[in-house]
Amino acid sequence: MFRTPLLIATALAVAFGLGILSSVYALRATVGFGAIALGPWTAFPAAQTVDADPYAKAHRARDGRLLLGGAEGLTFTAATDSDNRRLVANCRYEIAGITPPARLWTLHAADRNGNPLPGANPDVPTGLNAWSALRGADGDFSIRIASSAMPGNWLAIPEGRAPFLLVMTLLDTPTAGSSGVIDLAMPGITRLDCADA
Amino acid sequence: MRNLLYAIAIGLVGAALLHIVIILSLPSFTGRDAYTRVQAFGEANRFFPLASEGNTLAPVNDDPAMKTAVCTFSVENGPIRLFADGEVPFWSLAVYDEASNEVFSMNDRTSVSGALDTLIATPIQLIAIRKAVPAELEQSILVEMRGEEGYAVLRTFVPTQSRQEAASAFLADASCEPLTADQ
To answer: Which of residues 126-165 of A touch B (CB under 8 A)?
Structure first.
């Protein structure tokens, strides 16, 4: 007697449950298609354009960020180090190498939602850029990321064990339009050591 | 049992349909997309510098080495002229339509004289302007707007604390006003 309503209820529950869960999961998991991945760094050069795929459009509408235009630059984000381990605040990291061709670059740490992280106190360096970083004789740089002070280029992150993201923005760069002719490389992220890991 | 499998199969088809509907329709009713957030500043035709942090709907500056200002505008009643000039090492501009799709972007190296001087207009307004270019628009970059409403984002690079003042002044002096005939 209750079999037909029960079957309809099952079908509706499956449809709404899976439909909503899969949408939320898809929007959390990725910014969309068309990513450029260089080691641990990923960027979405077409996310702000009218040609962006529906997932990218839904994601950016939910996120509400002011994205960089094509002539402005390209934002690379890293959630893991070069060995694919998650970036966590109780470890120390080193970024070494050079950036793809760009006029300027900026680097900062952000929480999992992309908001910039403050340092442990207001005077520590929470951002580095092409002008403030010290370089080697051949133009490469090495940046240490730690919550306590480090020699050389130091990017401060808060104390704790929280996972974080590294955000590197290349300003005025041909990287977005690159068709793979130029061999692009982003600096590698090496884990140095961890406190009570 | 066969009926149950049938119901689950129907459910899966429904889930796929619902997934597509949600993804496609989400941009129109999130209530916190970039255009809605930019509109939270209230006033149009004015560049508002973004705060570095805050819990309001208005967007925040998300790069410590950059300063950003936004301006909402409508080209319905005439073209909008964007102008900014100052001693900053880098600036860039992006113009978006109301669906937050990029219409136009540029930086200081792609400008005519190092200063931002851009006119945003509908295709029809542009035809009239191109027929007889007014003297004050000879150096301007003319941009064809998609739709009528949109917003402009002006960013500048602040490499050191000492450049903070010049960057703030650059953004504060930037104008985003309707083009008036007597200008």
So the answer is: 126-132
